[in-house]
Amino acid sequence: MTKRILAAAAAGVVLTSGLAFGTLGTAHAARPALRTTEIVMLHAENGGKASGGAELSYSTQTGITTVSLRVSGLTPMTMHPAHLHIGNSCTANGAVKYPFRPLIDASMMMSTEADANGVMMASSSFSGNFATQKLYINVHQGPTLKTAAQAKPIACGVVM
């Protein structure tokens, strides 16, 4: 402990209660580490029965965030577009930032299909840490986004 204090003093820095004061006397708060994982719960929207969750995981080694999505309560064998949108609430109506890909279907379609049990699983990945962005996840009625009824969100969750 004494060696650390002496080293800080030699460097012209005084540490007090988590703040570092440089030689100019300016206080700098200790920077908290960015989150690397988060679980987002999706709740039903617009009278639907769909709900689920997503796990976001940021790799400090690759600089890539991966997102795994699982939604249940869907009509079996139906298509549902799903995206990460820009915004900090389910009512933000933000632009699509990152689409989800089906985990089973290699065609890379924008819509993902619920299985025979009404469960849909999908993934997405993007460069950068999710914790530096304001995002929310929407699952839409589908099967496309061509009409207002199809674009209606049926499940949503906010990335905190």
Structure description:
- With 160 residues, the chain is mainly beta.
- The protein folds into 2 domains: 1-32, no CATH class; 37-159, Sandwich (Immunoglobulin-like), CATH 2.60.40.200.
- Helices cover 8% and strands 45% of the residues.
- It contains 2 helices and 13 strands, in the order αββββββββββββαβ.
- The chain has helices at 2-10, 148-151; strands at 14-16, 19-21, 27-29, 37-44, 51-58, 64-72, 79-86, 96-99, 101-102, 111-113, 120-127, 135-140, 153-159.
- Strands 4, 5, 6, 7, 8, 9, 10, 11, 12 and 13 form a 10-stranded antiparallel sheet that branches. The chain has a 3-stranded antiparallel sheet with strand order 1-2-3.
- A hairpin with a 5-residue loop joins β2 (19-21) and β3.
Q: Low-confidence stretches at least 5 residues in length (pLDDT < 50)? A: 1-26, 104-110
The CATH topology of the largest domain, please?
Immunoglobulin-like
The percentage helix is: under 10%
- SSE sequence, one letter per element: HEEEEEEEEEEEEHE
Helix-strand makeup class: mainly beta
Distance between the termini: 37 Å
What's the story with the biggest beta sheet? 10 strands, antiparallel
The mean pLDDT is 79
Can you say what the CATH homologous superfamily of the largest domain is?
Answer: Superoxide dismutase, copper/zinc binding domain
